[in-house]
């Protein structure tokens, strides 16, 4: 299975201000509401590239993440741990997708997702 980057998220303490900043900077617009309050998908003006979302924090800090397509999120997180990484956000389920976040051995955070 190929493993493309399929989704990016900006997780912010103040998602409204973050949306306004990127709207002013790049002309991005809210395309639709996501699966929980404050989570929005963004229209970046092109159909190419990964999906983009701006959301409230899902941990203690603001962050920008990209998500890689995988067949099984749980197995991928376990393999990341075996390779010296750590699980930052265990498997989560929202309608139509499961996802999680790990940090590699150097601390770089990366999301993985499966339909």
List the helices and strands and how they pair.
Blueprint: E1 5-12, H1 15-26, E2 29-33, E3 40-43, E4 51-56, E5 63-69, H2 73-82, E6 86-94, E7 97-103, E8 109-114
Parallel strand pairs: 1-4, 5-8
Antiparallel strand pairs: 1-5, 2-3, 3-4, 6-7, 7-8
Order of strands across the main sheet: 2-3-4-1-5-8-7-6
Rg, nearest Å: 14 Å
Distance between the termini: 13 Å
**Share of residues in strands:** over 45%
Percent of residues in helices comes to 10-25%
Account of the 3D structure:
The chain is of the alpha+beta class. Helices cover 19% and strands 45% of the residues. The protein has two helices and eight strands; from the N terminus they run βαββββαβββ. It has helices spanning 15-26, 73-82; strands spanning 5-12, 29-33, 40-43, 51-56, 63-69, 86-94, 97-103, 109-114. The protein has an eight-stranded mixed beta sheet with strand order 2-3-4-1-5-8-7-6, with helices on one face. Strand 7 and strand 8 form a beta hairpin. The model has no long low-confidence stretch (mean pLDDT 94).
Summed up:
It contains two helices and eight strands, in the order E-H-E-E-E-E-H-E-E-E. The chain has helices at residues 15-26, 73-82; strands at residues 5-12, 29-33, 40-43, 51-56, 63-69, 86-94, 97-103, 109-114.
């Amino acid at each position: 299975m190929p493993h493309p980057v399929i989704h990016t998220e900006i997780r912010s303490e103040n998602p409204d201000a973050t949306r306004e900043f990127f709207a002013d900077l790049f002309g991005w617009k809210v395309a639709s509401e996501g699966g929980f309050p404050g989570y929005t998908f963004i229209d970046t003006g092109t159909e190419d590239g990964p999906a983009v979302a701006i959301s409230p924090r899902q941990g203690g800090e603001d962050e920008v993440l990209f998500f890689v397509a995988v067949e099984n999120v749980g197995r991928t997180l376990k393999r990341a741990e075996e390779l010296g990484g750590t699980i930052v956000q265990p498997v989560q389920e929202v309608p139509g997708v499961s996802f999680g976040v790990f940090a590699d051995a150097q601390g770089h955070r990366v999301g993985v997702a499966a339909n």
